[in-house]
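Dissemination and training. As part of the outreach component of the grant, students in the summer workshop were shown how a complex can be specified as a set of sequence lines and then modelled as a single object. The example used during the hands-on session is reproduced here so that future cohorts can follow it. Participants entered these lines:
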Amino acid sequence: MSRKSPPRVELLQGTLDVLILRTLLTGPTHGHAIAKHIQRTSEDLLQVETGSLYPALHRLEAKGWIAASWELSDKGKRAKYYHLTPQGRKHLASEHSKWDAFARAMGLILNPGDQEA
Amino acid sequence: MSSFFRKLNWLLQCGRKEAELREELEFHLDAEAEEGKEAGLAQEQAKWAAHRDLGNTTLLQENVRAVWIWTFWEHLVQDVRYAVRMMAGNKTFSTLAVLSLALGIGANTAIYSFMDSILLRSLPVSDPASLVVLKWHSRAPDPNEGTEGKPAHVMHSMNGSADADPKLGLVAPIFPFPAFEVLQKNDSVLSSVFAYRPARDLNVMVKGQADITQGEYVSGDYFRGLQIAPAAGRLIILDDDRVESPAVAVVSMKFSQKRFGSAANAAGQTILINNVPLTVVGVTPPEFFGIDPAAAPDLYLPLHSNVLLEAANPFGTRANTYLAQNEYWIEMMARLRPGVSITQAQAALAPQFHQWVDSTASNDIERANLPTLLVQQGGGGLESLRRQYSKPLYFLMTLVGLILAIACANIANLLLARATARRGEMALRLSLGAGRLRLVRQLLTESVMLASFGGLLGILFAVWGIRLLTLLLANGQTDFTLHANLNWHVLGVAAALSISTGVLFGLAPALQSTRVDVVPALKKLRASESRSRVRLSLSRVLVVLQIALSLLMLVAAGLFGRTLSNLQSVETGFNRENVLLFHLNARQAGHRETEIISFYKDLQERFRTVPGVRNVSLANYPLIGWGHWGTNISVSDKPVPRTVFLTVGPEFFTTMQIPIVLGRGIGERDQPGSPAVVVVSELFAKTSFGNENPVGHHLTFGGGGSSIPARDMEIVGVTRNARYGDLKHDTPPVVYVAYNQNPMPVDEMTYTLRTAGDPLAYVNTVREIVHRADARVPVDQVRTQAAEIDQTINQEIIFARLCTAFAVLALMIAAVGLYGTMSYNVARRTGEIGIRMALGAQRGTVIWMVLREVLILAAVGLAISVPAAFLTSKLVESFLFGMKPNDPLAMTLAVATLLSAALLAGYLPARKASRIDPMIALRHE
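and obtained this result:
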């Protein structure tokens, strides 16, 4: 395929859950849209494997962090819409702060010069 | 919705979910393809791209499915692992809780399994519900009513069991043979009537080997009435049960295998029974044990062979008693016609019996005391076993029920204490966002696991318990017929009870502690006062309950322990140690007067020559365990009431070490032809002669309407009183008669050997000597005198041992429960105690503060259980010996034991409290 794509980044283990939860923070949507949203928002750096997206969605549902309902999509088809539960919101918050701390720590170590700047 | 129920829901709705997943993935593919088309791909290409992007759909579906299942199990595994960690962290409590539950479940299952096999099981025959047992009841005959020499009722002679019933009077299952014939004629309510009579201690000779075997005389339609099919050959039929018929026998499956190798080999063989040849015609099926679960005979003989086989027995049935109208000796069962109830049968048969029995009365007194027919359920077989064991079993059942109650209370208490201790943890987890039901579920997992461990171990204990009980009840009897199997229903009930206790007492605190108001609970990790008081008082109630129940067990243990020690310290008047007893019946094997006397005498001589045997003698009965025999005995024509007799051989008093007070014992010089002599007990001497020396006086033995012909005997000696009969009843006056001068024919004999060292070491020598003397005479009932006595108090020994074990168990559980409650209490009050100590409270004061609470709990427990013990101990009165049910010593001992155990259990936490460092305690606050 000739489509030009930027170098892809492999998703780190466990990050997909957070990405899904974050995506749902903007409102309920279906699996396909979640994948597209992550891809677009990360400027195509992150490609969500469909093969792991759906198991992840069901896992999150089982954990009670997200819930699902069947609704009509904008194309008029029945689709499974996921939305965040209060628990999921809580979990996202704690994961978010963990990621912030982690990212900051990584940044501090990888770019020591930035600190002076 | 909680995750737990959602997952449950998922599992239940698998099919719908599969369809939903397919639809969800299809939607994805469509959306992807749509996008591809928008990007300028052809429809087909876009579809392909979408599929390629999605990858392997089946694999994806598998992965999603795995998520569904996995999270459910994941949580379960998490819970289980956490529960195991919690249990391991609290080893003492967990072990005790599991053990006490297991013992409770195990003991209950074992006892109930026995109950079931003894009291509830039906006979292994077809349609047992239609079987009935026939009995009669009669106003208990007053001996004063009979005029001189004439009996007061139509039952001139009763040979079988009879019982006194408070409501019905005398109740007995024995009938004269003509009554059987009368009832057989009724075919309106009964489809068959059959008769039987135990044939005890038959001498059976098979292939040159003689053994004592238990049998049953049965009427010709016994097997037809029970609807039993033979395992080999044929069973007894009507034609076998006639006077002229050739003598035949049917053997049990077990007997055929033991003595003939197999059932097929048995049929057609000739065997000798009581020295009479009979032909074995068939074998009963393996599951059939007759109609008395207590007996399980190995031989079935036609009723009419009774006269033939017992011809030599001086007390056996004779042809004239066989048909006599006033001789009561055969038992009957009947099968009801389909649709006929017991009441209908009773209504139809009673008048018929009355009419017949009325014709057998010879005077008005007899007519006034006529027996009335009783029809009772027979599907469970005869009730001798039930009568023997039902009371003790009901008692044991109550005991183990109490154990289970204590164990459940213990589990409940443990779970309560743990839940309270973990309020802080729960609050913390709730505040961190844990689902409430998730926590409840985890707590439940813990309690259910605890209970399940108890249940599993309980199965093991039940199996052991059944084996142990069989051993205890059999007490060395090799022919013990009672066998119980593990009863799964009972086990299920006991396990369900324990698990529901776990769930109930796990769930209540779990719900409560997860409803905790997070903020105050977190601020003050120790439980808030208002809530904990409620829960604590529940735990106190449980401790009080345990204390109260334990006291009941302790009282039972005390009562039975004292009963046993009373029985064991009963003065027998002879030396029971180092005596070997065994039983011979030379008459059954064919020996007759007067040769039988020299046979017995000759054997006595031979036993004397065995090295290590100090003295040898013989008597018709052993002193203890076989009851005693009475006859009319009078001194100068004045009867000496209640006097019993024993016929003994030379050297009897030397062998048993019964001291002779006056005159001499019975010796070699007392021969059949020499003047008849008798030795009497001190009690007899005192009763008949006061302070006068009875030696040289005469008495009349037998006569006066008894079956023994009268004989004049000279009193040659007086012995110290010795026990004869049993340990529990006072021994009446005894006369000892020389066995070879007994006016009755010499019959069975029990030899007594006083040995150096273990009496059982001589058994083989004894068997060899008897076998050489006459191989037809089997040596039976070999045991030591001490074992014989123990056998008579077997039930008391079992009760004392089991009760003590149960009481120790109950006390241990209760003490640990108390210890746990107090420890928790002390831990909760650390701050308060710290302040008290900072303000100058002494260690002693702190210890006393804790112990006072223990004592209050114990006192409340005692206040409930002491009156209860006084009330309930009356129920076991019939099991006691030598004491009243509210024996003060047993009560005091129980209370003292309980109090010391309580104080010990309370002292450990009290000491811990007294060692609290005020500084640390206050800082902790």
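DSSP finds four helices and three strands in chain A. Students were then asked to discuss how this feature might be tested experimentally.
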